[in-house]
Amino acid sequence: MGRSVVLFLSFLWIGVFGAIQSSVASELAQPNIVFILVDDLGRHQLSCYDDSFYETPHIDRLVEEGMRFDNAYAAAAICSPTRASIMTGKYPARLHLTDFIPGGRTTNRKLQTPEWSKGLPVEETTVAEALKAAGYATGHFGKWHLNRDKKYELGRDGDPGSQGFDDVLTTHKPKAGPASPYEEDWHHVRQITERSLAFIEKHRDQPFFCFVTHNSIHDPEIEKRQLIDKYAEKAGAQKNGLKNPKQAAMLETLDMSIGVIMDRLRALDLEQDTVVVFFSDNGQLGPKNGKPFRGSKADLYEGGIRMPLIVRWPGIVAAGSVCEEIVISNDFFPTFCELAGGGNVVSQAKVDGCSLLPLLREPASSLARDSVCWHYPHYHGRGLGPQGAIRRGRYKLIEWFEKSVMGEAGAFELYDLEKDPGEQNNLAISMPDLSGELARSLQQWRIEVGAQMMTVSDGAER
After folding, report:
1. Closest Cα partner for 116 from 78, 61, 71, 173?
2. CA angle 69–427–405, rounded 5-degree value
3. Which of 175, 192, 243, 380 is most buried by a 10 A CB count?
4. Rounded to two decimals, what is the model's pTM?
5. What's residue 11's pLDDT?
6. For residue 395, which of 374, 372, 369 has the smallest C-alpha distance?
7. Radius of gyration over every alpha carbon of the chain, rounded to an integer in angstroms
């Protein structure tokens, strides 16, 4: 029947998920999905989000031809939980997968970290499994970080091949695993790109889900010397700063990769049939006092969780459009399922996300959601401490677990993100009613998702 088959037709899926019914308008064919996920990229590091130091012309072109989201969030401030939320549509707290795998050491701390899940259970329905059941070819190329370790093997439980991906390349940070076959490809950007291009070519005549998941711009910060020197000479350049020359050089290489993928989609005449999504798993590995946002990777201040999100879909998404609605990485699963005609899977899997399709059609529309939440019951070498957070409308409340569990004052911070996106003016004392309401809502959310709580360590003073 070809690519133009209408989506009101049912697909037979033998298994626990039953029949997949279309919930997308009948005039739309199943689009291809290219999902580009970047590691440790802060929103401020893209020139399309008003920074002129980093040069990202191909990512900027995605914005010019698609939609930019200004209130998009990762479900966690570190990588593995965010990736789990993308795969399942569920909050990391519900999955009990709340830290990077295998996590850090927590000796001599006030609070004890719970026994959390160090891997995405194979029993979870992944977006790749849902799309595969709907007739999609599925490919994973790059970083996985959702199994108990990184000794990836084809067919091993917990690795991408057991989670719905047919074509798999797994990669590592420099010197942490097999090297790229290409010279000066320390972070496997070229290798990931080449495998992605081959996958797209192979499946050009059927719907495909191409998950392009980069190790870059995660440390170690390694790139070609001439590129680093180029940015080191720019105004404001500072090692380990917001304007980081090494990160900028790595980002330029990654941006060129995105340009190559887009050129191939055009050459294959697949532009109109392909949804391209660009996202980062958490904030920059950088200073805590950043602008316009406070915090960085491993923090629940905005710098750690407010992400760049761009969606390009010609004919559906208006070029140059901007969406202000609050969205989160849980939303990708239901969005992709609805695009594929598998809305029934979403209800059966009991996901926490909402489909973004209404926003893609009309960016001024809203989602039927009261708030979004975070839960991080861990200590991290780069973070500020165990914490949770809730955002409702313009307001965001942060709870510091060391203080709340120990019954100490100052456990909550409240910010008006419209007036104070840099989170400098704590309103918790001046707005006690709202602070208390959000604190109760955050506590109720933790109960609803079965979040694991921290306890006082043996010997800690109370």
Report:
1. 78
2. 95
3. 192
4. 0.92
5. 31
6. 372
7. 21
